[in-house]
Amino acid sequence: MSEAKSVSVFFPCYNDWGTMASMIMLTERTLRLSGVDGDITVVDDGSGPHTQDLLEEVERVFPAVRIVRHASNRGYGGALRSGFASATREWIFYTDGDAQYDVRELEVLLRHAGPEVDIVQGYKIARGDPMYRRIVGRVYHWSVKIAFGLPYRDVDCDFRLIRRTVFDKVELRRNSGVICVEMMTKIHRAGFRCVEAPVHHHERAHGKSQFFNFPRIARTLWQLAGLWIQVVVLRREG
To answer: What domains are defined for the chain?
Structure first.
């Protein structure tokens, strides 16, 4: 039986004007039907005018929803760090603002949030992306899994429910997408208890990926190498 009765939800948002309103509505409904006391935050990471207009309307229609705004784009890791810092409830749930994950499946994670669990990590039942992205995703997954000694089925699945006290011990420093590897490596090494749950992953309905271009992939590989040297070779906090 779930013990997660208090959850802070946040969404990192970068130009996700086509999906954010529906995600907020579905999240409010999911929290209500699950009997969970929750709050919702959107971390706007320097989005353009379409998203700004949408978030102003969100503030008007959903006054309980908190908007954290970055004046300029800090990167995916920067948005996650702001989201974690803004959380006040016992548990924290986040997923991406592009709606490739169904926020209603938060209920799946909640079912696993027992007293002996610190993090419920989702894993994709099947990846709803074009073939080339599925191939790159699998190569990335196995590379970081082996390099960092991680036991998880899907390190790169950003559908997570985490006990807030985890961040009393785990300090995140990365501002890029490498933050996911940093976070799961530090959580694993700190001995926090993780269970995994299957979730669906859908084709992108709006916008485009910020990751799948050569310069960004090259930067990610360079940053992963630096993280690996720090936490695996030198065994520093990173």
So the answer is: 6-233 (3.90.550.10)
